[in-house]
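Good morning C.,

I know you're traveling, so I'll keep this short. The sequence:
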Amino acid sequence: MARYDGHHTWPAYPARVGLRDLAYSLYERRLARQLTGRPMPRHVGVILDGNRRWARASGTGDVAVGHRAGADKVEALLGWCEEAGVEVVTLWLLSTDNLARSASELGPLLGIIEGVVARLAQTGRWRVHPVGALDLLPDSTARVLKDAAVATSQVSGLHVNVAVGYGGRREIADAVRSLLLEQAEQGTSIEELAEVIDVEHIADHLYTKGQPDPDLVIRTSGEQRLSGFMLWQSVHSEFYFCEAYWPAFRRVDFLRALRDYANRHRRYGG
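The tokens, ready to paste straight into the viewer:
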């Protein structure tokens, strides 16, 4: 389990900084000090929720403004995760349910997702891995996701799962389907498979096969449910629900989530 070492570069503030900004800076530093030497999650899952509500609260009727603001927050989050020693981050960008949204919203949203995924790959800083039912996505979106995975396949940095067209039930169904096809190719009968199948057989066919399960799942916007996010993998995860809409999520909110995680005594199996 990683431990937070407290090493990071603090931003330079102007001499005439406002009292609110100064108080925020001091509080952020205190939180960071509290995490020094504390256990940190290896894998963090994030449900990036609240883009549309943030846009409405900001006085704009264009939900794409909220989606763009949310996309602009992604790279900052990944930087914070790197500072904390996190190894894997899963970002839920688009659910299978979201694919039923109106064309007027879905089209721009998919374009924004394509843009943020392409930017992540272009940095050469993170290894991008798409998770989701790519066959449900438009060809252009699926191609951007696949190209990003290929372009970053040799990157040794933070492993970033981008969940697009993702649903937890669909993932489990796809895993079982993949397992059955694999066994059929090997000549295994249904009866023989039923005798030996266990949880590891299914885990080996999930979108995140070979990765550690998420230790911490963060959801923004105040909603206190998983909505199907990583149903299989999150059985032992710790959950942190944050009131802030995703575009307004700050480093201090992330540090609070890490503090909450570090203060919990994790119990497996009950």
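Safe travels,
E.
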